Amino acid sequence: MIEFRFAVGDLATTSFAYSPLQEAVFSLRSLHDPARYPHHRPWLRRIRPRLDTLDRELLTALAAPWLWVPDFLTPRPEHARPAFTDELERLRRTPPEVLVADFRATYRTEAELPPVVAHGLTDPAAFLARIADAVDAYWHTCLAADWWPRVQSILEADIAHRGRVLAERGAGALLPGLDERLTWTGSELRLATRDFVRPAPWADVSIDGRGLVLLPTLFARGAQPLIDPSRPPVLMYPARGRATLSETPPPVTDDALTRLLGRPRARLLLLLAEPASTTELAHRLEVTPGAVSQHLAVLYDAGLLSRTRSGRVVRYARTRLGDELCR
């Protein structure tokens, strides 16, 4: 059991964020155990030939076989929606001694260090540069073009849902609702560790005015903290809607809906059971964003969709009228 202890005011500084760097690094877990991440299998099949062009030995070693990841690879985001390039630059500034300590904490014993890591730790500065370059190449070769837009939409939808829970039911419903491992006592958030892959080395965490950041991820079976409890408090938890990552666009089987809206708009309305951006919808339907945008505008004007803006990204979701129409 790990206890996150809240003092007066700590709950007010608890916030949500997501991290493209974290998701990129966590996705390497699927190279060890694809069966744990069935919704990523179509993506894994697509990228397998591309992985052979990368520093695969190193990339695989960044996640231990028991799926722990060195903390320096997943630092707490400085903003709610950081850019991958900014996070990678921050990664490149990791002190060498932190890199060494984090790998040893992840692998627990020298004997369990993979050869590529054991050799790299003899020159941590050069090893850090190699890691950053490998993660950068992996991001641009396997993730940035089509995988990340879909993942980002799922993470945005999760955070939007958590915000509604907080507004309607309060923190007492929000926090334990993140994962069944969590319970909330009113001053402590307790994380059960009985099903962790390895015995937990973690200690209790005092928030102590530092703020707790809650991070949804597609690569966790349950809530988990960083390995080092002295780092700024972070709790990763499974994002809602992970199964939609492997979905193909649904067929339009309701003739009445098709006759009413036309096939393209009917398919869009069915897809928007969870919020998504124009780019995400275009990827899923394999059409241009411009074509999707025109149909979304019509559905929005008809009152079937709502839209919210997050920075430069606009996300659409069905309204209650849209839900009723799809039923």
TrEMBL record:
<protein>
    <submittedName>
        <fullName>Transcriptional regulator, MarR family</fullName>
    </submittedName>
</protein>
<dbReference type="InterPro" id="IPR051011">
    <property type="entry name" value="Metal_resp_trans_reg"/>
</dbReference>
<dbReference type="InterPro" id="IPR001845">
    <property type="entry name" value="HTH_ArsR_DNA-bd_dom"/>
</dbReference>
<dbReference type="GO" id="GO:0003677">
    <property type="term" value="F:DNA binding"/>
</dbReference>
<keyword id="KW-0238">DNA-binding</keyword>
<keyword id="KW-0804">Transcription</keyword>
<dbReference type="InterPro" id="IPR011991">
    <property type="entry name" value="ArsR-like_HTH"/>
</dbReference>
<dbReference type="GO" id="GO:0003700">
    <property type="term" value="F:DNA-binding transcription factor activity"/>
</dbReference>
<dbReference type="InterPro" id="IPR036388">
    <property type="entry name" value="WH-like_DNA-bd_sf"/>
</dbReference>
<keyword id="KW-0805">Transcription regulation</keyword>
<dbReference type="InterPro" id="IPR036390">
    <property type="entry name" value="WH_DNA-bd_sf"/>
</dbReference>
<dbReference type="Pfam" id="PF01022">
    <property type="entry name" value="HTH_5"/>
</dbReference>
